[in-house]
Specification:
Elements (H helix, E strand, L loop, with lengths): L2 E5 L27 E4 L1 E10 L5 E3 L4 E7 L7 E4 L5 E6 L2 E7 L6 E2 L4 E6 L11 E6 L5 E12 L5 E6 L4 E5 L8 E4 L5 E7 L2 E7 L5 E3 L5 E5 L4 E10 L6 E8 L9 E3 L4 E6 L6 E6 L5 E4 L1 H6 L8 E6 L5 E3 L4 E5 L11 E2 L2 E5 L12 H4 L7 E3 L6 H7 L4 H7 L13 E3 L2
Parallel strand pairs: 3-11, 12-20, 21-29, 21-30
Antiparallel strand pairs: 1-2, 3-4, 3-7, 5-6, 5-8, 8-10, 9-11, 12-13, 12-16, 14-15, 14-17, 17-19, 18-20, 21-22, 21-25, 23-24, 23-26, 26-28, 27-30, 31-32
């Protein structure tokens, strides 16, 4: 079974036919020549060593056998099957058997070997030729997709689609890579490639006018050659036409002496400036002294108008001394920037000083109207800034002229020297 016919030609394990020939009578012998050739079935086994150290049969690898020094021998070639084997039929002599290395794979055994086949070797199977290669390191990817949502006319959420131009930064908490920043393309995506296993942090730079709906940053754990995906979604927001602030109380006595704390239950009124009859809404400060006219509240009263001016005034009470202006004008912007969060208006008051408290006084020359070219009696709701503006003076000049230790500490009925 290990031979085939060369002359005459015959298949392996077949019958060689010479054909018919007429032999004339002769005293000599006729020589009939048969030439045969021994064949060897050489099995090549291919193993693949994976990254975790396990092995598996290598399918689809090309194996070549090249005769050495025999011009009549023919090159042999084959591809390993799903069992990682291929059988090459070779003739006696010296052969070079080699594998074709696939990209990235590292040979564990020599990638080519020499094999000498002896024509007179005992019959039987030859030992297999084994090739083994180590799997190339694989790398993971993280694809980040950026989507935007908006608000429709009914107040519901509307999907806008992928957003281009957003910066996404990839880093590792262990600091093993430098942070890499990429910008989403027209499909709203970026892909970070060639990543080794480990823990990664993916963070987006939130642009003005957008509210994050997804966790930011997000953690991705890479364990293998996987293709991880991260989704960032943001809701487009509009600027808010709202007014908020705090009503402060500056205390005279312990435990808050000299400190400013929030004052609850104080009335605050917002009026649409220029309306007659006035369009207004009133609220009261909460337990911490805070108040707010939300956009919904202003809309309900017809006051949430871009470009309009709202006058915000605090309630005035007897025996309370305003330290700040009691009314402040707020002009809403037009158009409203996406990042506009509203106006802040704070108010500060102090009570009339208790008996025995140190009360700021004017100097002897300023306390009497007789010593001034122009005197002014402080009224309820006044502060030094409003008095200075009304009389064409400066706060610093009035402070110095009247010997005030604290320009915020004036009280109703006090006489100030203007000039």
């Amino acid at each position: 079974m290990d031979w085939d016919g060369i002359v005459p030609e015959a298949p392996r394990n077949g019958i060689a036919w010479t054909g018919w020939a007429k032999l004339n009578e002769s005293s000599d012998c006729y020589d009939v020549l048969f030439k045969i050739r021994r064949l060897f079935d050489v099995t090549v086994i291919k193993w693949e060593e994976l990254m975790d150290g396990t092995v598996q049969p290598g399918e689809g690898w090309t194996i070549n056998a090249l005769p050495q020094g025999d011009p009549w021998a023919i090159n042999q070639s084959g591809t390993t099957d799903n069992h990682g084997t291929v059988v090459l039929t070779m003739t006696p002599g010296k052969w070079l058997i080699k594998e074709t290395i696939q990209s990235g794979w590292t040979p564990v055994t020599p990638p080519q070997v020499y094999l000498t086949l002896n024509q007179y070797a005992p019959p039987g199977a030859t030992d297999p030729v084994v090739f083994k290669n180590r799997q190339p390191p694989c790398y993971a990817t993280i694809t980040v997709e950026k989507n935007g949502l908006g608000t429709n006319a009914n107040g519901g959420t509307e999907w806008l689609g992928p957003l281009a131009g957003w910066k996404i930064t990839l880093s590792r908490p262990d600091g093993k890579i430098y942070p890499v920043t990429m910008t989403t393309d027209g499909s709203g995506k970026v892909t970070f490639k060639n990543l080794i296993p480990g823990v990664y942090s993916v963070k987006e730079a939130v642009q003005a006018g957008w509210k994050p709906l997804s966790d930011n940053p997000q953690t991705v754990v890479i364990r293998d050659c996987e293709n991880a995906r991260v989704l960032f979604e943001n809701l487009e927001v509009a600027g808010k036409l709202q007014i908020s602030g705090t009503k402060y109380f500056r205390a005279w006595v312990p435990p808050y002496q000299g400190q400013t704390v929030g004052l609850s239950g104080w009335g605050i009124t917002a009026t649409l400036k220029g309306t007659n009859p006035p369009v207004y809404v009133t609220t009261h400060t909460n337990a911490l002294g805070n108040y707010m006219f939300s956009q919904a509240t202003l809309q309900a009263h017809g006051m949430a108008i871009p470009g309009a001016t709202i006058t915000v005034c605090e309630e005035q009470r007897d025996h309370w001394i305003p330290v700040s202006a009691t009314c402040v004008d707020v002009m809403f912007p037009y158009p409203v920037p996406p990042n506009y969060t509203g106006a802040k208006v704070n108010f500060t008051n102090m009570q009339d000083p208790p008996p025995g408290a140190a009360v700021p006084t004017v100097s002897s020359g300023a306390a009497s109207s007789a010593g001034c070219a122009q005197a002014y009696t402080v009224r309820r709701g006044d502060n030094l800034s409003s008095i200075a503006v009304a009389n064409g003076a400066s706060v610093s000049a009035l402070t110095q002229l009247n010997g005030l230790a604290n320009p915020n500490m004036i009280r109703a009925g006090q006489t100030l020297c203007i000039r």
